[in-house]
Each structure stands twice: as structure tokens, then as C-alpha cells.
Design brief:
The chain has a single domain (22-175), classed as Rossmann fold (3-Layer(aba) Sandwich), CATH 3.40.50.2300. It is 36% helix and 19% strand. It contains 7 helices and 7 strands; from the N terminus they run H-H-E-H-E-H-E-H-E-H-H-E-E-E. A 7-stranded mixed sheet has the order 2-1-3-4-5-6-7, with helices on both faces. Strand 3 (104-108), helix 5 and strand 4 form a beta-alpha-beta unit.
Length: 185
């Protein structure tokens, strides 16, 4: 786990990296790509997931659509956890997301709240960003800087067009639909 004196992002860092407005609604291509990412998890079986989302309407709708689609294909949603964009402590949602040891985590969120949550997850739980998959709303180049590159290294997601993206330390790389990363995670 990262060595941080506090898992909270300072007000100075939040101001330096800016914030974003509420995420755009998810697309059908994005949802299909996200499910495909989970299904083809490099030789690992993914059945049980934990779903997390911000409290804005687009994130709530994306999380609900994912949960319904995942259950329809026979998967299990162990828990669904939401969080506010600002909080005094991120420990409660972090522990709820990790309590049942899912095969993977799925996130539908806006940048500021998820960055704070990711820091708490890495600081206080056994959460693994390499087992975490997200909607396009987190495909933001500010995410590694705001959360800390070690906090989100390995996070993957779907683009609105049906492609994919992944975080490698300080960089987010996007891939067109059907294009695969050239290296193993």
C-alpha cells in the first residue's frame, strides 16, 4: 500500500487539478465494452463484483445498468456502494466496497470523489486497482495526479465509443474498439 501521511487529497491539490462537472450518461457501447473487459480478465474467472458510484444521476444510472446487465448474464453483485463528492472520511464506503472480497470492482463516478475514495481504498484496505473496471467518466488524465499514480495503477475502463483505457502509473492510454494493449497488465 502507498506510504501516505494522509489519504485525503489536499484542498491545494484539488484546486490545482480542477474538478469536473457531473459525468455524461453512459452509452450502450461503453456498457458492452465494460462487461467484455470483465469477462475476458486474462484467465481469471469473474463472477462476483462490487459496484461503486458517485451520487450524481449519470453515475447512479450507469451503475444500475451495469448491475442489471451483469445479473442478466448470471453474475453476482455483492454490494452497491455510493459516496458523496466531498466527505470528512472515506473509510465507510471503502470498507463496504471491500468487505465481501469480490472478484472485481466496477466504478461509475466523477473524478473528485473517486480520487478521494481510491486513496482511502489503497491506504486502508486490500483493494487492488488492477482488479477494478470503470466507466468512461474516469478516463480523465487528471486522475493519476489527483489520486496518486500508485493508487490507480492498473485501473481499466471502457470508453464511450466502446474502446478501452488503462492507467499505467501517471498515464492513461486509450485503445480503439477491438484494439488490445500491447503488453500484459
Amino acid at each position: 500500500m502507498p506510504d501516505m501521511k494522509s489519504p485525503l487529497i489536499s484542498f491545494r491539490d484539488i484546486a490545482a487539478h480542477g474538478t469536473q462537472s457531473n459525468p455524461a450518461p453512459h452509452t450502450e457501447e461503453e456498457l458492452a465494452s465494460l462487461i467484455a473487459l470483465l469477462v475476458r480478465r486474462r484467465g481469471l474467472r469473474t463472477a462476483a463484483v462490487a459496484v461503486g458510484h458517485s451520487r450524481d444521476s449519470a453515475s447512479r444510472a450507469a451503475a444500475g445498468a451495469f448491475a442489471a446487465a451483469w445479473r442478466a448474464r448470471g453474475g453476482t453483485v455483492l454490494t452497491t456502494v455510493d459516496w458523496p463528492e466531498t466527505a470528512a472520511s472515506w473509510l465507510r464506503p471503502a470498507t463496504r466496497l471491500t468487505a465481501q472480497l469480490p472478484d472485481a470492482w466496477v466504478m461509475a463516478a466523477s473524478l473528485p470523489g473517486f480520487a478521494q475514495l481510491a486513496r482511502r481504498l489503497r491506504h486502508s484496505t486490500e483493494w487492488d486497482p488492477a482488479r477494478t473496471y470503470a466507466f468512461a467518466s474516469l478516463q480523465d488524465p487528471r486522475l493519476p495526479a489527483l489520486a496518486g499514480p500508485d493508487a490507480v495503477h492498473g485501473l481499466r475502463g471502457a470508453t464511450a465509443e466502446g474502446g478501452t483505457w488503462e492507467v499505467r502509473r501517471r498515464w492513461i492510454t486509450a485503445y480503439a474498439p477491438g484494439e488490445e494493449p500491447s503488453r500484459a497488465p
